Amino acid sequence: MHRSVYVHVPFCRHRCGYCDFTLVAGRDDLADRYLAALDRELDRVEPPEAGGRRELDTLFLGGGTPTRLTGPQLDRLFASVFRRYQLGEGAEVSVEANPSDVTPELIDRLADAGVNRISLGVQSFDAAALKTLERDHLPADVPRVLETVRRRIDNVSLDLIYAVPGQDLAGWEETLDAALALEPTHLSTYGLTFEKGTAFWSRRRRGELISPPEESERDMYAAAMDRPAAAGLRQYELSSHARPGFECRHNRAYWSGDEFEAFGPGAASLLGGVRRMNHRGVLGWLRRLEAGESPWIEEEALGPADRARELVMLNLRRVEGIDGEDFPRRTGFKIDELLSEELLEQQRLGLVERDDAGVRLTREGRFVADGVMSAFL
């Protein structure tokens, strides 16, 4: 039985040039239509056999910018979710927040709704990098924002981006140190990517944006692994670091290959071995639900071998890697049966290691994780 739910809130004040997520910018006028459509989508949830509401271990509101909704709109969203689901004891409830949106009133409203984890889109503590990333806050805003959040919610994750055009290793290390000085419970560190179709993709092709050299980006990732560890945050996933007990349980469910349900435009679910994808266009998703149609545009039932290989890729994102006992129990395959030649080659290259506990990326393998994982497809 799945016990994790994701809700996608697709509103932003501005679409940052690097962003390829499903969202609309400057269209807050669509929020009430979105909430009505979300309610219709949630109506598709089947109650448990015993009746009542399904119980959740984790609930995650992401975006877009969930905190772009007004207070009454947030109340309406939570009311829709909690008509179909209830929080289990000790459930983790996360909301992504833009620093510029945070007020005492917002945090009180979120905490009163049951939110106990905030993921704050800080991205950088360098004013020049924030300008390049088209963010609407300043580095000096973040300590005040954190103080406001911590009045009610202690579990705060900071999201950071490295390899920003114009950034060097020293600048990235300063951002890491500034973030760690604020003693977050969790830190996410992402290398900037230039996705096709984004404004940054076009600007780089025109020569307006130049990425740091590959060796510099490698050094930045090394710093992203080492500096948080020295400050007491353990790396538990390729881009994630946490104080003991503060790992993001919702994301761990993804990387463990657990089933989950997701709602909103562009949201993807995994239930009963079937992966479903909602319409990515916000207006298209709205129109489908307003017409009484399914929001799904893709549905794929994974075969046993494909499901097992997908689990390999998900598990390898975890520092702990693939559990040698759990993997065959869940998939029906032993790792050697599924990946014998590929595994030996990656071991020979020094990119994965294995022992009685299972298989995991080496430190060197983390630098080229995407390539290692593609070798197992």
Strand content: 15-25%
Regions with pLDDT < 50 over 5+ consecutive residues?
none
Count of runs of 4 or more consecutive helical residues: 15
Estimate the mean pLDDT confidence. Answer: 95
Give the second-level CATH assignment, the architecture of the largest domain. Alpha-Beta Horseshoe
Describe the structure in brief.
The protein has 377 residues and is of the alpha/beta class.
List the helices and strands and how they pair.
Elements: E1 4-9, E2 11-12, E3 24-25, H1 31-42, E4 54-63, H2 71-84, E5 85-97, H3 104-113, E6 117-123, H4 127-132, H5 141-150, E7 155-162, H6 169-181, E8 186-191, H7 199-205, H8 214-230, E9 234-237, E10 240-242, H9 249-255, E11 261-263, E12 268-271, E13 274-278, H10 282-290, E14 296-301, H11 304-316, E15 322-323, H12 326-331, H13 335-348, E16 352-355, E17 358-361, H14 363-367, H15 369-375
Parallel strand pairs: 1-4, 1-11, 2-3, 4-5, 5-6, 6-7, 7-8
Antiparallel strand pairs: 8-10, 9-10, 12-13, 13-14, 15-17, 16-17
Helix pairs in contact: 1-2, 1-10, 2-3, 6-8
